[in-house]
Amino acid sequence: MSEPIEQTNRTLVEEKSRQVTQPKRRAWLAAVLVLLITAALLVPLWLRQKQGPAAPGFAGPGGPPGAGLGGPNAATPIETATVQTEPMSVFIDAIGTVTPERTASIYSQVSGQLLAVNYTEGQIVKQGQSLIEVDPRPYQALLDQARGALARDRSLLHQAQVNAKRYEDALKRNAIAQQTLFDQQATVEQYQGTIQNDEGSVKYYEVQLGYCHIVAPFTGRIGLRLVDPGNTIFSGASNTLAVITQLDPITVVFSIPEDDVQRVQNQLRRAHTMKVNLFDRAQNHEIAAGSLLAFDNQIDTTTGTVKFRARFRNPNGSLFPNQFVNARLLVDTLPAAQVLPTSVIQYNGQQAFVYVVDRASNTVHLQNVTVTNEANDESAVQGLAQGTLVASSNFDRLQDGAKVMLAGRGTPPFGPGGSGPGGPPAAGGKPAGPGEPPPTNRKPGNLTGASR
Questions:
Q1: Separation between Cα atoms, residue 242 and residue 37, nearest integer Å
Q2: Is the model's pTM score more than 0.90?
Q3: Could you give the 3-state DSSP secondary structure of residue 40?
Q4: CA distances from 360 to 78, 347, 387 (A)
Q5: How far is CA 35 from CA 27, 45, 48, 206, 383, in A?
Q6: Range 76-85+335-451 classified under CATH 2.40.420.20
Q7: What is the pLDDT of residues 201-245, one digit of tens each?
Q8: CATH architecture observed for domain 105-244
Q9: Within a 10 A sphere around the Cβ of 411, how many other Cβ atoms?
Q10: Tens of pLDDT along 301-323?
Q11: ∠ Cα 79 80 86 (to 5°)
């Protein structure tokens, strides 16, 4: 009996020993894991210190300014652009809507059964082309009736006129009383009035009969079919039978600010016409070229703009009604503008500036300029002379008086505005002072568009 007791005690001791050993083993594993993580973090730092600091005068990709080739005082490699004197056209850009010169909604002016639809949906129809046929038989019968009444009354008028002539001869022989002649002459006049009434009835029914043959009022594109043969249509109903829009020529309506209206009026007085170009949504491809047709007689007080209408030839149908386009109105031409690539112009707040290169000292100095016009990639500026050399890259490394090295003279330049090979683009040129926003090449606002 003592042996089972001893075996039980031995089992209890072993279980207590395992319970005490397991927490110690877990703590040891946690300590080893912490040591491995620490070693993984410290080994790269130790290897970097063992290799020593980077060679002086070179900054890696995206390095800070002044740490480029040759150290803090080394020349910064740049690319350059030259101020050119060229004629530049001044444009006003606006978003326009293509609007047909004429749009016709076709309604029925007579009542009757619709016999035929003689057009195809989306078809280009010619002026006078048959579109819809309404049952003409009732109106043909009324026209025949009116013509019969006219023929009868004309015969009666002829008879009355013959009698009046005979009475005149009889009165000369004193064969009848004068009152008889007067009565016959009145009868003739009555028949003349009846004939006029009959002729009016004939013309009216001829018009009604013509309404049974609905034709295109002008050449244009017809829309989707809105009625089917076999239906009965009614005169004066609000249901549209067809819609036709004229496509060639076609117009575009756009709005310009009220501040530019005077310039447009002055140009119209001098040239009597103004060119308008249309571009696609991305403004990469010209769609059409036309001329200014008219403008509204009042300013829209809600937007401060005036509506203008320009006319364009549209033989291939590239302009579609209600299409949105970019309109460019030619306002003036600068005969000798100082032109620079737009990318070389930097902005510090509202002030535009460039870095002018001094070839004698291989330095740059900051020059404020005024942008008068701009195109997609070119700008007209004031404050620079023709042939002036300006920096066009590495703006984040430049400041007033900085030494530079022109591209192609021993050192390839970094990317435009970058701080190292593959570095990020620059945020601007002129260093910002305390409390000032950093300079940028982003324009502070929209300027009047221009193009050579």
A1: 80
A2: no
A3: helix
A4: 16, 26, 15
A5: 13, 16, 20, 109, 66
A6: yes
A7: 999 999 999 999 999 999 999 999 999 999 999 998 888 999 999
A8: Beta Barrel (2.40)
A9: 16
A10: 999 999 999 999 999 989 999 99
A11: 150
